[in-house]
Design a protein that fits this description.
The protein has a single domain, classed as 4'-phosphopantetheinyl transferase domain (Ribosomal Protein L22, Chain A, Alpha-Beta Complex). Helix content is 40%, strand content 32%. The chain has 5 helices and 5 strands; from the N terminus they run βααααββαββ. The strands form 2 sheets. It has a 3-stranded antiparallel β-sheet. The chain has a two-stranded antiparallel ribbon with strand order 2-3. A hairpin with a 5-residue loop joins strand 2 (74-78) and strand 3 (84-88). Helix 1 packs across helix 4 and helix 3 (32-39) runs antiparallel to helix 4. The N and C termini lie close together (6 Å).
Amino acid sequence: MKVLCGIDVLEIERMRKAVVRSPALVERIFCPLEISYADAHKDPIPYLAARFCAKEAVMKLLGSGIGVISFREVEVVRTPSRRPKVELSGRAAIVAEELGVTSIDLSISHSHSVAVATAVAMVQG
């Protein structure tokens, strides 16, 4: 087995400014369940920023930059135990399969000013 890792960090204020400047950005980047989850909080921006970081971390571990994989092909969902989990579709799922990825674990966090996520994948072969 081999391990792939990706990490991303983002200033929450940068995400806030991007959303204010272009509100349509939210629906271009995030899936409906991600938006609903964030909107359930008083301030959704930190939760969107954390999920953006998770998407970026997964793209990095897959070796794909922006444009190769769509942000909406990497969806952050929650397990019944409330743990974050990634679901891949489209090109993201194809790249993961080509790499031999058997599982991806996520860790997501944010403070009042910064969001961060780490993605770790197990690869067969």
